[in-house]
Each structure stands twice: as C-alpha cells, then as structure tokens.
Amino acid sequence: MPEKLHDLNVISESILIAPEILQREYPLSDAGAKSVAHARRSVENIMDRKDKRLMVIVGPCSIHDDQAAKEYATRLKKLSDELGDSMMIVMRVYFEKPRTNIGWKGYINDPYLDDSCQMEDGLRVARQLGVWLAELGLPTATEALDPITPQYLGDLFAWTAIGARTTESQTHREMASGLSMPVGFKNGTSGDLDVAINALKSSKASHKFIGINNLGQVTVIHTRGNPYGHVILRGGSKPNYDKVSIRLCEDELLAAGLPKNIVVDCSHANSHKKPELQPLVAEDLTDQIVAGNQSIIGIMLESHLHNGQQPFPKPDTIDQLAYGISITDGCIGWEETETLLRNMHQRLSTLRSP
User: Fold this and answer.
1) 223 within 8 A of 207, measured Cβ to Cβ
2) Which CATH number does 19-43+54-345 carry?
C-alpha cells in the first residue's frame, strides 16, 4: 500500500454554502443597497476632502449577540441622524477576531460560543444582521480577516480595516486591492509604520491571486487595485496619536507619494488597553482638528451598551452572560459614548459641515 501523503492532520471536511445562495437567502433590498453605496461614497468624499465631516467608527469590539447589536445600532442611528452635519458615524460590526495565540475567533467562526464552530450558521446570522443594519440605513465597518468571507458579506460594509497582525500579509494586501470599499491598514503591533505604508502601495496596485467567486468556485481573481487605502494609527510600544506622531505619519505618507489620510484608533495601545481612556484620546484628536489639522479624517472607538468586559463564557455558563457587555476587549458604555460624541459635535460643527 502506498504511503499516505495528503491530509495527514485533517480530521474532517464539510461543504459550505456558496456565497450566491446565502445572498439569495438574505437579499439586500434596493433601499439597503443604496444605503451602502451612499455610505461608501461618503467615506470616499471624506478622503477626497469633498466632505469635511469626521468619520467616527464606533461600536462593540466584536459582535456576539445580535439582539444587543440591534439595540446598540438603533440608538446609534438616532444619534447619527442628529450629529450628521459634523461627523459620519459608522458602526463597528466585527464578526471575526484575530488571535495572538488561541481563543474565540468570532461570531462567524463560533456563533454559539461553545467551540462547536458551526460556521455556516455563523455566516447566516452575520449576513442576516448585516442586511438588517443596511436596511436601517446605518453605515457599517468590519475587519477583513479570512480572505473567503468578503464574498459572503462584502456587499454590506461601507469601510473595512486590515488589522495590525495582518497588514504585513501579502494575502490581505491582495484581498484589499479587490475590495469594493475604502480600506484602512493598521500600523504594526510594535508601532512600525513601514508595514502600513507598504500595504498601501501594494493594495493600490493590480494583483492576480487565487480565491473563490460568488458560486464558491476556486478561481484566479484579477483586481484593479484599491485607490482608497489609508493608515490607521493604533499605537505600538507607545501611543501614536499625539501631534508629533501625527506629523511624522504625514511626512512618511508624503514621502511615499500617498494622500495624507489618517484614521486614529482610540483603543488598543493608544489608550494603554484601558477603555476608560478612549475619550481622552478622542478629545486630544478633536483639539488637533480644531487647531487646524487636515489629515485626521477619522477615529475609532470601542463602545457597547454597557462599559467594561466580561470573561468569555464556558459552555455551561453561556446563559449567564450579562447583556450588552463585551466578551473581547473592554468598551466604554453607551452613556459615555453619547456624551463624548455630542461634545465632539459641538466643537466640530463649525469646521466640519458637509
């Protein structure tokens, strides 16, 4: 008998629903599609300086409960309508979570939080929620982690991030070159900006690579390149949202021949991983904008219905999870979020009208 050489470490395989079939199960209406298209154009206009508003990407660190996500979104939509003359509010809808070692990989990978990893169910609940949000008329943002999932959900988002752990990945740069919305690349976890600059150059170019099409078939994808890539400053060994760091980033973008478009993540290393410090970072950035900075086009905040973080549940304690509290990174609560955004609106309203 010949030596077995294939799938030595594979336990099982299962066929996944094709993107086209999932999209037929949970279709986006004409109104929802117009909402997403309008939101994408708004982000592009902000980057092109045709829209003077500040983009504010705010919401839970990760989605783990669609009911809490819908309640948060309903509140955020109302606030967005009220503050929309000075800021474009985009809800964080992060279905995938990168892990430093091991752990919960997000709502798509494990929607029941019990390590059963029912990924087809995860895609279904993710798309169902994404369609609901689009129909609500609230722009959404996500992190593109798995290169396959954009075929299932990519029509739902106005903005996408590439995380600090994957900005250096050729696979993710190629993927970003073909995504249909603006894409932000985070600086490396060390704070290194070169990886993000290189990612911007790469994603702006045309690529050919192996992927899947809407029928789920393996195919060679040829992209035209994404003209709306930009940097996300998320800190590293130290914060990098201060005026000096912003200026250094501007200089590096200019030297690379890239537009001076900067989004700043108020969480992660910029707030020393202390969620309660996020408003201080946002206030500092508002000061810089009011003082005349033109390169800060957006900020990111981790926010949920209630502040803080709770431990990831064990299988027998899932029903004991507190409602509206993050199970990944800690978040600021709704009341603090609302107060912060209202204060920012008051200061920016004279500068950032459409």
Assistant:
1) yes
2) 3.20.20.70
